[in-house]
Amino acid sequence: METKEPAVIQPLRRRVVGTLLGGGLFASIVSAIYPVLRYLIPPPVADLGGDEVVAAKLGDLKPNGSKIFRFGTRPALLLMTAEGEYRALSAVCTHLSCTVQYRNDLHQIWCACHNGLYDLAGRNLSGPPPRPLETYQVHVRADEIVVSRKREA
Amino acid sequence: MCARTRSSSAESGRPELRLFASVRNWVGDRFHLSDIIGPLEKKTVPVHKLSYWYFLGGITLFLFMIQVCTGILLLLYYHPGANEAFESVQYIMTRVQFGWLIRSIHSWAANLMIFTAFAHMFSVVFLRAYRKPRELTWISGMLLLFLAMGFGFSGYLLPWNTLAFFATKVGTEITGQVPVVGHSMMVFLRGGEEVTGATLTRFFGFHVAVLPGLTTLLILVHILLVQYFGMSVPPGVEVRWKAAPAEARQMKFFPNFFLRELMAWYIALGVLGALAAILPWELGTKADPFAPAPAGIRPEWYFMFMFQTLKKIPAKVWFLDGEVLGILVFGAAGALWLLLPFFDSLGRGRGRKLLMGAGIFALSYILAMTIYGYMAK
Amino acid sequence: MDTWRNNGLPRTLFLLLVMCACGRTAFAQAQNTCLDCHGVLDPPLQVTEQQFSSDIHSQKGLTCASCHGGDPTVAGPDAMSKTAGFRGKIERKQVPDLCGRCHSDTAFMRKYNPSLRTDQLSQYKTSVHGKLFAQGDTKVAVCIDCHGVHGLRPASDTRSKVHPLNIAETCSRCHADAAYMKGYSIPTDQFAQYSTSVHHDALAVRGDLSAPTCTTCHGNHGAAPPGVDSVQNVCSKCHVFQDQMYEKSTHRAAFQSAGLPGCVVCHGNHGISHPTDAKLSPGPQAVCMQCHKPGDVCDRTRADILTELTQLDDAVKNAHNVLGLAESSGMEVSQARLDEDQARDALTKARVTIHSFRKDLIDQDIQEGLKLAAKNLQAGNSALAERDYRRKGLGFALIFILITVLGLSLYIRQIEGRAPKP
Q1: Which residues have a Cβ under 8 Å from the Cβ of B190 and sit 6 or more positions away?
Q2: Are A36 and A104 contained in the same domain?
Q3: What angle do CA C174, C180, C182 make, to 5 degrees?
């Protein structure tokens, strides 16, 4: 398998092969490096982990107001009591999984589907729901209201 | 000096070779390159009908390098921890630019790597490349195969989805069945009595620190041994070449075989990219330790043959518990397989035939039980 | 008393033996020698110790004598002494008053369970059963028919005949028996109908104990049909929105003046099936066409509403399919899946708004739903577009790889002077 190189070997052919190889190598390396470089740039939305979500900004909610936000794969409810305290709970009704809402006339959490009622700590008050709503922890960090799952002991 | 032999190419007007030549000269002025490059330049690869099998080891190495690169990239965004792992993988798949590509390549390359590792191992068995003096190469290779399966098992849990959680539960449960030490092994693997976030942390540690360290070491040993002993020639070809030395053909490793290997690696890269884009790896649903196990839990395909065997063994064989018997049999088989080269020289040809038969049996068994495992519902 | 003589000598000897052997059976806290004999007699005199020990009354320390009188500390037939107040078998017409003797005595019940109600007897007297009973009908239900008598369990016990899961069956023992109910002018298909209903499905199949059973709508001790005027109130206990809308609707006034029972007209009472859009269709399940004439303005409105609902339903299903396609191609669409729930909620809301019988309100809900469904469809389509972009990118990368491989192959050929091997 000696390298046979007669004096005048098809220079055109050589150039074609060279271009093909060089060009192909270059293009394929770029098409591999390009995604990696893009990957290294952190996305604008920071990942806080599934345990934590920024539910709202300070000032979004007024006393006796509420907001539905996404927590993990399920909806959750952030509310501000009339006294100005933040509460966060799962918004999935424990009866048949409808999305509950905050009733600012009753100061209670209500499910429209079958008239289930919970208090502001998620405990059952009346109606079909068999279990209380799961509650979450709320922290205010700078101007963000961060809701996180309660850590197990 | 070999450092300067490429000057003719430098004049032939190829810019890339000119650059290469000047770098080489710079290094050669400081280090004895001939000691390192010399043997590499002289390395040859035998050329015969079965030479294609020589590629498998290199492809496995290439896939491992892909795993290291994509693994490091994934490390930049992955959060190990029961409450965060799944969401961080979801984040990589949806928010990080080309995160879907990196993650899918990592998952696919893992499976391909284990496949090529098995194929490489079986080709060594059937081409009898384990013969003297290459016994240690075989042992290091088998250990690498075990490490690769450990990589697969530990990595599978990291996305913390339902399938992975229960597959890990079942897998570590089986480990617990080993007599005497089984329970301790299981607790060691799980980081406790049950599969929890502690298990995830532990598996993460194994997967990114312990196993890579051991594997890198063993790969170095394995490759050094391969370089030292050169490529093995299959016995039939060996005989032919001894009889007619003129027929023996060798190919230089640099650049001829290397270029071909590069082609193979590029094709493998293309296959990986296609798999990642057309058949992306699933995310699954987040693991819930309190939910009942879904139907049809099964391990990844490379464990399937063992899993299916354990399922099919009757509950009691003689006085032994069926599952324990199965585990002991596989353990013994693994140990014997590790020491395979030492059986080759037994009883004048008998050992050789035995090993050929064992190889065929092992391959058929693995194939059959894997297929069976997937067909049986 | 006849049975004693009929059983003859061997039986008597056996009983004497039993009495001597067991003497006084230690039983709960109170002595209850009655079971020594009655435990081995044949029905209808048989009450075994096992049976009676499962009774809540015996667990609280009551004995046979608490209801039947007599002296439970004396062994043998002397226990059944009239001087000790033995009453023998309690006649059906005596049962409510006998039970009420304790259960309506608040001070007495407070000693055992202060939170138990004590108005059962007075409620019973207002019920259909009670009223007929007062007129001398002993076929109607009395306390023991529903609660059992010697193995009586509290209603919270799943084995109790009055546990929510078992109530319908208990009522059906009379009310589904056509032969027994002959002479009363009410149908006997309620249980059969209820068994097909969505409420039964929720209760018996899904185990949702909050789902209604007979007593939820009819009351238990004061059992009576709600009455045409009050059916709506009963349903509204759970179905609040439908009630609120219906109350303000045109149909409320119309049904009331026609003496029709509100919800029941369209939904039935016992066999309430899962409502589908087919109720709005002109087909066999149609409810509107029970009263309205084909071609009149209400019929046309009905048709419009049905068209709109179908449109929204189709939009939701379409978005669902596209998202499914994207997902099976490997695209990550979990956010859009969550938003799908919102679109489905909008569809449910629109269907609830039907009860207002106001097309403008229904239109509003439909439009909102269509917007949400469109958003989901867009998410699905952009996921598919992203998939196509990735495949295009892959195509380019593969072409580059192919070019490189080709280049390598030619280069090998070049430096080796001939076709490369292997």
Answers
A1: B172, B196, B198, B199, B202
A2: no
A3: 120
How far out from the chain centre does Cα C252 lie? 27
This complex has an ipTM of 0.80
> Residues C361-378: pLDDT tens digits?
999 999 999 999 999 999
Q: Is A18 on the interface with B (CB under 8 A)?
A: yes
Q: What's the alpha-carbon Rg for chain C, to the nearest Å?
A: 36
- Cross-chain residue pair B266–A38, CB shorter than 8 Å: no
CATH topology of domain C297-416: Butyryl-CoA Dehydrogenase, subunit A; domain 3 (1.20.140)
CB contact under 8 A, B100 and C421: no
CA distances from A47 to B104, B132, B156, B335, C359 (A): 20, 55, 22, 45, 45
Q: Which residues pair with A67 in a beta bridge?
A: A78
A5 — pLDDT class (breaks 50, 70, 90): low
Contacts of C293 (CB under 8 A, 6+ apart): C299
Asked whether the predicted pLDDT for residue C171 surpasses 90, the reply is yes
Q: Which domain holds residue A14?
A: 9-41
Nearest CA-CA distance, residue A127 and chain B, Å:
26
Domain B48-293 has CATH 1.20.810.10: yes
Residues of C in Cβ contact (< 8 Å) with B104: 330
| A24·C406 Cβ contact <8 A | yes
A106 and A37, same domain (yes or no): no
Query: Domain coordinates of chain C in residue numbers?
Result: 1-89, 92-225, 231-273, 297-416
Residue A2 lies in a domain: no
Give alpha helix (H) positions in chain B.
7-11, 15-28, 33-42, 55-75, 85-94, 99-126, 135-157, 162-175, 182-190, 197-205, 211-229, 235-243, 258-278, 301-312, 322-338, 341-344, 350-375
Domain boundaries, chain B: 48-293, 305-377
- pLDDT surpasses 60 at C396: yes
Neighbours of C386 (CB within 10 A): 15
Task: Return the SS3 of C310.
Answer: helix
For residue A105, list chain C residues with Cβ-Cβ distance below 8 A.
none
| Shared-domain flag, residues A57 and A118 | yes
d(CA C16, CA B68): 90
